[in-house]
Write a structure and sequence with these properties.
mainly alpha, disordered C terminus, 209 residues, 11 helices, globular, single chain
Length: 209
């Protein structure tokens, strides 16, 4: 603490009469950035999903919790695969995501642009997918003019969405709840710092008493 800072503190102490306000401020500092311990909650959600539905992935619960955090951090399947293991590819990460009901309907499911020019005239792409699914992967591949791997991806994603909706999306909501508080606190702190930077930009801070 330099001399000028000491002088400012002494002036404040004289005005306040004691250091109770300073102590209160120190106690509250960091309340926006304290991250809750969500690890056990994430493991609980993953374990419940595994017990209730069974998983197609061979990843263990620790890896799946890492996957959930990575998805919520905005990483894509390729990035997550690279971080998890050299033997895990993006498609296996996709399988794990669908096991966890984490499906992006904009990316994982087909839309009308994915239908061939002579596609199903009535209904949506998902209607076409549901119809073709009843006849097997070959029918899905033919309906969308895709390879078997992509056809399998469509079917797995649709199954996951329907399974999640049948459960009222409770597990996806549980992931949201477990991670929102931590993300919110970080975002609030970042917003506070950005706001302070913007508010103090160009201001003189060297005050001469």
């Amino acid at each position: 603490m330099d001399r000028k800072t000491e002088e400012l503190r002494d002036i404040f102490m004289d005005v306040a009469g004691d250091d109770t306000v300073t102590e209160s401020q120190e106690e509250s500092r960091g309340s926006l950035t304290d991250r809750p311990d969500d690890d056990s909650r994430l493991h609980e959600i993953v374990g419940t999903l595994r017990e209730r539905y069974g998983f197609g992935t061979d990843l263990d619960d620790d890896a799946l919790v890492h996957l959930v955090r990575a998805v919520y951090d905005g990483q894509d399947d390729d990035e997550i695969a690279d971080a998890l293991d050299a033997n895990v590819d993006a498609f296996e990460v996709f399988i794990a995501r669908t096991d966890l009901h984490i499906v992006d309907e904009n990316d994982d499911l087909p839309d009308e642009t994915d239908l061939p020019d002579d596609g199903v005239p009535d209904g949506t792409a998902l209607d076409a997918l549901r119809d073709a699914r009843e006849e097997g992967l070959d029918a899905v591949a033919d309906a969308f003019d895709v390879d078997e791997r992509t056809a399998r991806r469509y079917v797995i994603a649709l199954d996951a969405v329907e399974q999640s909706r049948a459960a009222n999306d409770r597990y996806r909501d549980a992931f949201d709840d477990a991670l929102t508080d931590a993300g919110l606190s970080t975002n609030l702190d970042s917003a506070r710092e950005d706001g302070l930077d913007e508010a103090t930009e160009g201001m003189e801070v060297d005050v001469d008493f």
